[in-house]
């Protein structure tokens, strides 16, 4: 028995040479660039939650996307594990727009702003960018310091 995990999605839309990130304007992870995502709601699958969050946060509708990773985050002193399901977005429709939550921007793959992102991203983005699947466990103290990090690369597609 314990506290059930909080299930979250995180979607990185990528093209051959660039990736779409959003500057988080409020809430958890504010002032950091990140993919789009949020809490999976009752009655929807994790994939449906991922697609909904992308639409809500940047206006795009995913037409091809795939779950590629899962990381469980522990924060020292907090009983609830954040179970983050990471998706790669490959095709989409619609017009990119800024929302109250996110200011989207494309970044060249060799100019990803790691200094203004969650510090864990520097560990798993390289795996993500070479097209592999992965799973991991990362322990944070506060929002800036990583105490433990284990990542397993599962396959290269
Ligand atoms: P809302 O609370 O805004 O969803 N998220 C993380 N993303 C990264 N890159 N690193 C982390 O390390 C994260 N923890 C959570 C999941 C929060 C959004 O932030 C992501 C969601 O997309 C701790 O609804």
Structural summary, described in words:
The protein has 157 residues and is mainly β. The chain is built from two helices and eight strands. It has helices at residues 46-58, 121-129, and strands at residues 6-14, 18-24, 33-34, 61-75, 82-93, 102-108, 132-141, 145-156. Strands 1, 2, 3, 4, 5, 6, 7 and 8 form an eight-stranded mixed sheet that branches. Strand 1 (6-14) and strand 2 (18-24) form a beta hairpin. The N and C termini lie far apart (37 Å). The mean pLDDT is 97. 6-O-methyl guanosine-5'-monophosphate (6OG) is lined by residues 8-10, 27-29, 34, 37-39, 73, 82, 84, 118, 120-121, 140.
Summarize the structure.
The chain is built from two helices and eight strands.
Key attributes of the depicted protein:
single chain; 157 residues; 2 helices; 47% strand; binds 6-O-methyl guanosine-5'-monophosphate; mainly beta
Poorly predicted residue ranges? none
Count of extended strands? 8
**Oligomer description:** single chain
What is the CA-atom radius of gyration, in angstroms?
Answer: 15 Å
Fold topology:
Blueprint: E1 6-14, E2 18-24, E3 33-34, H1 46-58, E4 61-75, E5 82-93, E6 102-108, H2 121-129, E7 132-141, E8 145-156
Parallel strand pairs: 1-5, 4-7
Antiparallel strand pairs: 1-2, 2-3, 2-6, 4-5, 7-8
The structure holds 6-O-methyl guanosine-5'-monophosphate.
6-O-methyl guanosine-5'-monophosphate binds at residues 8-10, 27-29, 34, 37-39, 73, 82, 84, 118, 120-121, 140.
